[in-house]
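Hi R.,

As promised on Friday, here is the backbone we talked about, encoded as structure tokens. Could you run it through your design pipeline when you get a chance and send me back a sequence?
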């Protein structure tokens, strides 16, 4: 597929919106342990349960998360520290994934935060887990966004059986970490990097790679994508989606389904409109 004239129309609305998806997980009844953050004094919004920190260049700081074992057996909790990325569903990914890091990412939060790979929490007790943050030497505008993930060791999770089939339910809890130094407003920007035919889960799609090359979180992202054949007046493929997010300095591989068909060889044009709020 050759794309002679694909282009991107981007409309940005600069507003500050509440960030409601920074602590993700499941109800306590579904997990053998709970996770609680110890909010430090430099927390920007102390009503938030995720880490929302104001820091300075070269600053070092420890933050603490409390794990509580709700069972009568010792458990091992595996821990991950990751920079936020964006899934193809337009969801912020805080856990480890095969999504590549974007070229625009200057400071990788997973390199700035150190902590244990796993801890053992004794039966019916709590354990504090400390993470050490070392800020870069140089100052930056905007935000750094990542997450701490917690998951019980797979070999310890009890299997259940249903109709002769063994089922293992594994849950992961994620706590976001957002760090900023200044209140400088960063102007949002999106780039259309690449458009190509592809397959996702063995289904034919056309993917459009959108790059957020700024240190801002894009929320309420809506995409209206239409693909036209050469000289076509009506789109041959359409995809409309809303309520997505794009992490700072990351990319969204946006799929446009071919609805089970094969694309005929020829020239096609992608017309895409993206709107979002940035903060």
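Update: got your reply. Pasting your designed sequence below so it's all in one thread:
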């Amino acid at each position: 597929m050759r794309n002679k004239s694909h282009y991107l129309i981007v409309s940005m609305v600069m507003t500050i919106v509440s960030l409601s998806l920074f602590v993700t997980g499941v109800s306590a009844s579904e997990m053998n342990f709970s996770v609680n953050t110890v909010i430090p004094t430099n927390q920007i919004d102390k009503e938030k349960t995720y880490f929302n920190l104001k820091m300075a260049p070269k600053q070092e700081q420890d933050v603490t998360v409390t794990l509580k074992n709700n069972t009568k057996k010792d458990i091992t909790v595996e821990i991950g520290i990751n920079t936020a990325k964006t899934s193809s569903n337009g969801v912020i990914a805080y856990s480890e994934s095969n999504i590549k890091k974007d070229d625009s990412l200057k400071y990788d939060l997973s390199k700035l935060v150190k902590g244990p790979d796993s801890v053992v929490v004794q039966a019916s007790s709590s354990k504090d887990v400390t993470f050490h943050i070392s800020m870069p030497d140089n100052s930056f505008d905007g935000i750094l966004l990542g997450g701490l993930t917690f998951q019980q060791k797979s070999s310890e999770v009890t299997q259940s059986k249903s109709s002769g089939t063994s089922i293992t339910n594994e849950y992961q809890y994620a706590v976001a970490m957002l760090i900023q130094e200044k209140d400088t407003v960063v102007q949002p920007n999106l780039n259309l990097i690449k458009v190509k035919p592809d397959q996702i889960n063995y289904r034919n799609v056309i993917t459009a790679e959108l790059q957020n090359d700024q240190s801002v979180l894009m929320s309420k992202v809506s995409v209206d994508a239409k693909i036209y054949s050469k000289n076509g007046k009506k789109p041959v493929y359409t995809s409309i989606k809303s309520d997505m997010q794009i992490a700072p300095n990351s990319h969204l591989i946006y799929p446009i389904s071919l609805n089970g068909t094969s694309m005929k060889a020829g020239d096609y044009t992608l017309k895409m409109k993206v709107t979002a709020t940035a903060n």
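One thing I noticed while checking it: The two ends are 36 Å apart (CA to CA).

Thanks again,
M.
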